[in-house]
Amino acid sequence: MPADPQEPGSWLHTESNTVALAINLVPFAGIAFLWFIGVLRDRLGEREDQFFATVFFGSGLLFLAMLFGAAAVAGALIISFATAPAQLINSAVFHFARATAYSMMNVYTIKMAVVFMITTSTIAVYTGFAPRWLAILGYALSLFLLFGSYYLSWSFAVFPLWVLLLSIYIFLDDIFGRPSSPT
After folding, report:
1. CB-side exposure of 39: number of CA atoms within 13 Å?
2. What is d(CA 10, CA 152) in angstroms, rounded to the nearest whole number?
3. What's the rounded Cα separation, in Å, for the pair 105 and 113?
4. Residue 154 and residue 74: Cα distance in Å, rounded?
């Protein structure tokens, strides 16, 4: 979907199949993100601070809820367009739904990703479950998202890339870094 909430809907003629594919992948991304949260909480174990853990978990769930909501609105636009293309593009409902999906994704979902990154980075600093450089990178990228996401349409990719980087670190640390416990 285009970054401009005022875009008249021409993307539905050319990009609706691509957007539909992306929308169908959102539930899988959500499951993977929930798994990621579970891995982080398992890694923290007894070191988990209740305050930060609550904000961490809550922001992660709110991020997913808003991501799913924005995907549902975008999916509804695509389905409605397939039914009556000319009527939808010229309707106030289309413009309202488009603005809703844009606001949910580019304002609220991104802000919850920022909160998640800040709390995860803070937990990493306090507990040491990840290296300090990764936490500092999380702080820097979260500030970039907080202030730059409105101006740079590609900035939405920062959050999943940071999650991927943290996941790779945890994966490699589990394989090579920590001694296994005797069973």
Report:
1. 17
2. 21
3. 11
4. 18
Instruction: Give the distance, in angstroms, between the CA of residue 138 and the centroid of all CA atoms in the same chain.
Output: 14
Q: Report the pLDDT value the prediction gives residue 181, as an integer from 0 to 100.
A: 46
CB 120 within 8 A of CB 63: no
The count of C-alpha atoms lying within 13 angstroms of the C-alpha of 78, restricted to the half-sphere facing its C-beta, is 20
Single pTM value for the model:
0.82
- In tens, the pLDDT along 117-164 reads 999 999 999 888 889 999 999 999 999 999 887 777 778 889 999 999
pLDDT of residue 121: 94
Q: Which helix (H) or strand (E) segment is 136 a member of?
A: helix 132-148
When divided into structural domains, the chain yields a total of: 1
Residue of 117 and 5 predicted with greater confidence: 117
Q: Is residue 180 part of a domain?
A: no
Encode pLDDT of 50-78 as tens digits: 777 888 889 999 999 999 999 999 888 88
Whether 63 is covered by a domain: the verdict is: yes
Cβ(114)–Cβ(79) below 8 Å? no
2 within some domain: no
Domain presence at residue 4: no
Are 33 and 113 spatial neighbours (Cβ–Cβ below 8 Å)? no
- The domain of 130 spans 11-175
